[in-house]
Every structure is written in structure tokens, then in C-alpha cells.
Here is the input.
Amino acid sequence: MKTWFTVSEGAEYAGVSRDTIYTACERRELRHARIGGRRSIRLKPAWIDEWLERHARVPHAWRSDSAAPTRSSVL
Here is the structure.
């Protein structure tokens, strides 16, 4: 596996669009390295994995906190 990905390669690896990668980098949600110009970004696969893990949705049945608010308690 490559050590560094371009934005296109990172997007393909993560299964998202290039725009999603650029947006995550702009919001500083996704760790990245800028090389030269504004759009010359490089990503490590581990950084993409960390970003995906932080944004993964956990199904309700898997949650360990049984005190999560229910719809009726929020209303």
C-alpha cells in the first residue's frame, strides 16, 4: 500500500467524493499535509481511517450508555 495518497486516491480509499475530502481538510476534521499550492494535499491511510472512525455511526443496539435520551424525553 502507498504511504501517501493524493486527494483522489484518498477519496477512493474512503469511498467518498474528492469534495468531501477537501471539505474535511478545510474544516480541519481530517489530518493532512499541504505540499506547495493550496490544493496540493497528501493524506496517509491511517489518518483517513481515524477520520472515518470518528464519523462512524454506532447503531443504537451497540451503544453502551443506556441513559441515551429517547425521543419522548427530548420533546
